Structures
1.
Amino acid sequence: MLAAARKHLLLDRLARDGRIVAKDVAAELGTSEDTIRRDLRELDAEGLAVRVYGGALPASPAVVDYAARASVAPDSKHRVAATAARLVTPGSTVILDGGTTALAVTAALPRDLDCTVVTHSVTVAAALLEHRAEVIVIGGRLFKHSAVACGAGAAEAALGVSADLFLLGVTGVHAEAGLTTGDADEAAMKRTLASRAADTYVLASEEKIGAASRFAVLPLEGVTGIITDAAAGSAPMRALEAAGAPIVRAS
Amino acid sequence: MLAAARKHLLLDRLARDGRIVAKDVAAELGTSEDTIRRDLRELDAEGLAVRVYGGALPASPAVVDYAARASVAPDSKHRVAATAARLVTPGSTVILDGGTTALAVTAALPRDLDCTVVTHSVTVAAALLEHRAEVIVIGGRLFKHSAVACGAGAAEAALGVSADLFLLGVTGVHAEAGLTTGDADEAAMKRTLASRAADTYVLASEEKIGAASRFAVLPLEGVTGIITDAAAGSAPMRALEAAGAPIVRAS
DNA sequence: CCCATTCTTGCATGTTTATGCTTACTCTGC
DNA sequence: GCAGAGTAAGCATAAACATGCAAGAATGGG
C-alpha cells in the first residue's frame, strides 16, 4: 500500500470516526503500528491531525479542509516554515500572512511561545487558537480563494498595527518580476502589511522560485530576506542571486 | 478508549449536564474511578473544569463551550441551526455569532445561497469558505475560548455594519436572568451586534433553556425570536412562556 | 539494463506513559 | 466526632512510544 494512500485513509477515518486508534488501524491494514505512528506524527506536523497517546484526533476542521486542498509537497514548505518560525522571538509582534505556507508556520510555532500574532487569514487565526500567543485578527471582506480579509476596511485596520516582523507569502519570486501574487487587492494588502513591520521575510517554498504572477507585491530588495530551500545551483536561484535578492537558506 | 477522547467526553458531559459525578462516569466508561479523577484533576489544572468533592463542575461557561467544540453536535443543535438557516433569504445580510450552534448554522446554509454573512468568529468564517456567500470578517483581539474577535476594535468595526438579521448564540436562556453568556466582553459585543440588525434571533439548543451564565446580553423581549426545540411542556419552557419570551419552535 | 542511492518499512532497543490497585489521609453529613 | 464516601500518592504492570538499524522496494543516472 502506498504511503500517500494510507495517509488519505487515515484522514478519512479521522473525519468519519473522529479518532484513530493506532493499534486497530495497523491490524486492519496489515502494517506495523510503527508505520501508522510515523504517519500520524507526520500528519500532526502538517497540522492535519492532533497526535495523542494511542492514536490521533482531528485537528480543527476548518484547518484540515483548507490544508488538504493544497495537497502539495509539504517538505519544502515545512522547512521554510520551520526556519521562519525561528525568527519569532518571545515578546515580539509578528504579522502572519495567509496561505498554506503561513499555515505551516503556525504548526512550527511553539505552542507556549508568548508573542503577538497579527493576521488577516481566518485559517491562520483558527490554527492559533490552541497557542498561547495573543492573536489579533484583521477583519474585512473575505477572499475565498486564499481565506484572507482584504479590501479598504482591512487595509485601514492594518494601518493601526506596528510589528517587529512580517512573514509574507507570495505565489512568485522572480529575478525580474520580483515578488508577485495572483490578486490585485491581495497584493495591495501585502504591501500595506509590509509597511507596518520593521522586517519582512518572504516564505518562498521551492515551487515559488522562478515563478511570477500578475500582480507585483514588492521588489526583491524591498524585503529583509527571502526564506527558501530551493537548490542553490538551479537557474532561477542563480538569477535571483545575481539580481541581489537577499536569500536566506532554510534548514 | 483514547485518553484524550475521554477528556473530550468529560468536557462534553460538563457542558451538557453542568456537572460530573466521578463514580457514574467511571462505571459508564468501564474505567476505574481513579482514572476519571486523574482526568478531572488535569482538566482542572488546565482551567477547563473545577474539581469538587465527588466530581467536577464547569469552569467559566465560555471556556467549556469552546473546549467542547470538537465534540459531536447533538441533534438539538442541528434542528435549531436548520430552522435558523431558513431565515436567511437570498440577497440579505446576516450577522452570524460565534459558538458551536452558529457553526452548525453554516453547515445548514445552502452552499449556493447568495447572501452576505458578517461574523466575528474565525471558525465560522473558515467554515463559510466554500459557500457562495460574501463573508465579512469583523477583526479584533481574538478571544481564544470562543474563537471570536472582541474588544474595542471589534466593536468599532461592528458599528459600520447594517444587517437584516442577527443570529445570536448564548449560553443561557432563563426566564428571569434573560439571555446570558460567560464573558463580559463577549456580552458587550453581542449587544453591539444586535443593535446593528433589524431582527435578532437567538440560537437556543436544548441545553441552554433554563440555564443562566454570569453576564447579561439582552432581556428576553429584546430579541425578535428565540429558536429552540426544547420540549414545550418542561418547567423552564413554561417559565419562559409565562415571562413572555418570543419562542420560535425549531423543526 | 544495471548499479548506486534513496526511501520506506518493520523490528529490536530502551524509555515513557497510562492505568488500576493499595494504602493512608480528608472531607461531608449526620 | 464518627462513619462512610471520596481522595491523593505511591507502586507495579502493561501498553505505547521514539529511535536506531537493517532489509527490501523504488528511483534515477549511467
2.
Amino acid sequence: MKVLHMHGPPYKKMKVSKNLDRKKDVSTSFEYHKLCEARRKLPIYPVQNRLVQEVRRLNTVIVIGETGSGKTTQIPQFLFRAEVHRGSQIAITQPRRVAAVTVAKRVAQEMKSELGKLVGYCVRFEDVTSESTRIKYMTDGMLLREAIIDPLMRRYSVVILDEAHERTIHTDVLFGVVKAAQRQRAKKGLKPLKIVVMSATMDVDHFSEYFNSAPVLYLEGRQFPVNVYYSCCTQSDYQFAALVTLGQIHKQAPPNHDVLMFLTGQDEIESMVRFVRDIGRSLEGQAPPIIACPLYAALPPQVQLRVFNRTPPGARKVVIATNIAETSVTIPGIKFVIDPGMVKARVFNPRSGLDLLKVVRISKAQALQRTGRAGRESSGSCYRLYTEQEFDSFKLNTVPEIQKGDLNIKRMCSLSSVVLQLMALGISDLIHFDFMDRPSKESIITAVDELHLLGAVEKREKIQLTALGKQMAAFPLEPRLSKVILVAKEFSCLEEIMSIVSLLSGESVFYTPHKAREEALAARRKFMSTEGDHISLLNIYKTYKSVGGNKNWCMENYIHQRNMKTALDVRNQLREICDRQNLPFKSCRDDTVAIRKCLTAGFFMNAAELQREGTYICLSTRRPVSIHPSSSLFRSKPGYVLYNELIQTSKCYMRDLCVVDPDWLYEAAPSHFKRKKLPT
DNA sequence: GAGCACTGC
C-alpha cells in the first residue's frame, strides 16, 4: 500500500484520561471526594448507604456513573435489599431491548433467582415477569406505554431511568411523566414514588435542576486511563487520515492490541475493510496478521458476532464500526480507538423542509464515549483525527431526539405519536408540559394539527382527545397507521389492512443482496400490483401464508426472513389490540378499493397529483415529488397517489405508493381539501 | 433509475 509510506497526521499528546471534560464540575464536588475516600476503603457499600439514605430522604436522586461502574446491575439490588421498594416493584428502563434482556438475565443470576421470578424483564413481544417480580428491567417505550393505562404508575415504588444521557424521545417524555406521577401521588397521599436518574453525562446540572435540585451521586467506573491524542492540523479527508493512523499503529503496536475505528456508514466501512486487508497483506511477515471486521446494524447477525471472537495469539483485530459500537455493542480487547469525529445523522434541511442523512460532527459526549472504548480492560489510546480547537467547537451533548423533530417531516410522525400518547395520559396542555428540553411550539402545533386532521383530537375550549383518538393511542403505531386500522371496520377489510400495516410499520421485507440484485428484483416482480406497493405487500403476505411461510420460500423470493417474522409478531400484537376493542376481523377478499379507501383515511395528507408535464406535486405542500424507482408504480403514471414517506436524496422521492381516486381524498378529509381544486 | 446512521411501542 502506497499509503503506508506517506506521513500521517502528526499528533500532540495530551494529558487526558478518564476525567476528561468533566473539569471542575466533578473534581471540586464535595460528594465526589467523599465518595472516593469511602470507596478506597470499601468500594461499593458506602455508595449503597448514601444512595439509600438519599432516596429515602428526598425521593429523587441523580446517579452519575462511568461505564463499568455497575450501576445498572447493582443499584436496583441495593434498593431492593434496603427494602426501599416496600414490597412493590422497582422498574429500570433501558433505551434498547437487548440491554433490558441481557442485564435482567445477569442480575437474575447474581441474585440466584430464576429469570421471570424475582428479577424479570418486559420488552415488546416478551413479558418475562410474574407476580413475584420485584426488579423489572424494561425498555423506556414500554414503561411509557404502561403509563397510559396507569399514569400514577401505582405498581412501582421506584422508577430508575437508566442511560438518561442518551436522551431518547421515550426517556425524555418519561422524565415529565414520572415527575408528574411523583407529585400526584404525594398530593393524593399515596405511597411515594422514588425516582433515580442514572446517566453518564457531563451535563449534570441540567438534570439536577430539572428534578428540583436533586442530589447527585458520582460513581467511579472500572474505566482505565486512556491517552488521548489530537491531530495537529485539520484533516480534510478523515477516511484517509484514519487509514494512515491505523497503518502507524499497526507497525508499532504489539500483536493482540486490537483497534476500533469509527466510520459513518456501510459503504465507507466496506471499502475501508478492503483497504485494511490490503495493508495486512502488504505487511505480511513484518507486522501481525490483520483480522478486519466490519460492524453495522444492517449486517446479518452471524457476521456481527465475528467481532466478539477472540483474536488468535500474534494477530490483530481491527473492528471498523458505525456508532453502533458507541453504545449498543461492547467489543473485548480494544486497546486503540481511531475517532474521525464524524457520524451519519438525520438532519433537517430548512430549504427543502425535508430531512436527510448527512455526515456531521459528533458531540463532545460522543467523543468521550468513543474514547472510553479503549479503556475497558486495560489502559489504552485514542487517536482523535481532529484538533483540540476543533474539539472545543463540538456541541457539548447530542441534541435530544425530542428536539431533533422540530420542523422535520419524517419526525413529525414521532412527535404526533408522542403528543397522542401524552394526551392519552391525560396531559392536554402540551405547550406547558414540563419537558426537560422542550420541543418548539411549532412542532407541537404541527403534531396537534395532524391529530386534528385524523380526528384524534377536537378543539373546544381546550384541545382534547376524541373517542377515536383514545382508541388510536392503544396501538403501538404512528397515528396515521392506527387511523387506517380503525377505519377498516367501516370497509370490512381489517384482515387485509392488518397485514399491510404490519409490513409497513417495520423494516423492509425486501432483501436485495449486492451479488444477486437482478434475481431479487425479478422475484419481486411476481408480487407487484398496478394499484401500488401496499397491494404488492398484501400479495406477498398472502403468498407467504399460503405456502406456510417457510425459510426456503423466503430465500427463493428474496424476502428478508427476520423482518418478515417481526411483521408477523406485530400483526399478532395488533390483532390482540383489535380484539380488545371489539373490531370485527373481516376480509374484503379481492376488493382492493376498500383497502385503498382505508389507506386514504390515514394518509390523505400525503397525496400527490400528476401534472401535465408528467411530474408530480405534493397536494399539501405544492412541492415537486417523484416516484421512487423501487415502487411498483415507477413505470406508470396514475393521476393521484398516496405515499407512505418522502425521502430526499438526488430528488424528493415518494416511497410505498398507492393509486387513489381524487374523490376519496375529499371524502376522507373534506376540510383539508375544501380549498383545493380537485377535478372529478 | 435508486442507495439508508441508530433505536422503540
